[in-house]
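Entry, Tuesday afternoon. Goal for today is a structural model of the target with NAP bound, before we commit to ordering more compound. Inputs were pasted exactly as handed over by J.K., no edits. I checked the ligand SMILES twice against the vendor sheet because last time a stereocentre got dropped in transcription.
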Amino acid sequence: MTYSVAVSGASGYAGGEILRLLAGHPDIEIRTVTAHSNAGQPLIQHQPHLRSLAHLTLQDTTPEILAGHDIVFLALPHGQSGQYTDALEDVPLVIDAGADHRLTSRDSWDAFYGGDFHEPWAYGVPELLVNGGKQRDALRTATRIAAPGCNASTVSLSLTPGVAAGVIDPSDIVAVLAVGPSGAGKSLKTNLLASEILGSANPYAVGGTHRHIPEIQQALRVAGADDVRISFTPVLVPMARGILATSTAPIVDGVSDAEIRAAWENAYGDETFVHLLPEGQFPRTADVIGANTALIGLAIDRAAGRVTVVTAVDNLVKGTAGAAIQSMNLALGLPEDRALSLNGVAP
Ligand SMILES: NC(=O)c1ccc[n+]([C@@H]2O[C@H](COP(=O)([O-])OP(=O)(O)OC[C@H]3O[C@@H](n4cnc5c(N)ncnc54)[C@H](OP(=O)(O)O)[C@@H]3O)[C@@H](O)[C@H]2O)c1
């Protein structure tokens, strides 16, 4: 069977990456692409790397144009998806790359986003530990999927094994992330100009204001944490794509080094796309660019009494489009890794 697909936000970074991956998916026909200010223009004008989709024209993003497909991807600025999702009742599978359906707590939505709150959908990170199982079990029966925030899923994948195994204390987490500017989207912003970024590392959303904080707290609670407190600081660095997240948390008293490492080995030992590196090795973003892969390095810092987890992902693949398509594969009953690469593009 071939599934017909519409991708909204197709002129943007997330929409473009969804299209790049779907173009190599044998079970998918990309029928419709939509945008906003660029509607009416050829897709290739905005995504010149997507040569095989040169025949497509960006249409307006309306419920009528998105309806009538087997699968709809929403890759719109946060706050925009809700108006379409209500009108897409008859579409069998809808996947939102935005934040509108990620949070279960209305209070968190109000505090960090504001505007209308929409119901939470199945969270699109299959490898996450949840209530003694994995999130992929929920995705197998899902018809509505919320793909993750890229920074949020990187930190959640880093720490949920230690939380679920009870070897780290989630009430004192510190996460500092080096992030590429594509995470902020394609629209013009002064702080994202090359002249502001090249040759500089620029912190932003410092001091507990970043919107991905409640998403991380939610994932760690689902993994078994009661009290989650996190100091979260992203730093823009001059690389187009990629996240390198360094997350630390206190080691629970009496836990051995072997028990700590076993928590991550047990969580990810059988996973295709999430790899714990051998002891003493730490990942680089260069190794995951273009790949649906999360590489994790783990250090046990006894002097500091903390575990240090360094994780590298491509924000546009494992952090968004790859997670969305991996989740789609699960929901359709297809091989989970279809159209997704384990290998990065390097150097
Ligand atoms: N970038 C990432 O690494 C990343 C990671 C995880 C999740 N996400 C999420 O993915 C979503 C899209 O992000 P992005 O980085 O792709 O942003 P982007 O590059 O700025 O693209 C935004 C897209 O949405 C369209 N759009 C803008 N306003 C719209 C409206 N009012 N109605 C309908 N369409 C509208 C734009 O169309 P025009 O160009 O025609 O105006 C464009 O196609 C966001 O919710 C973001 O949080 C992104």
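The chain has a mean pLDDT of 97.
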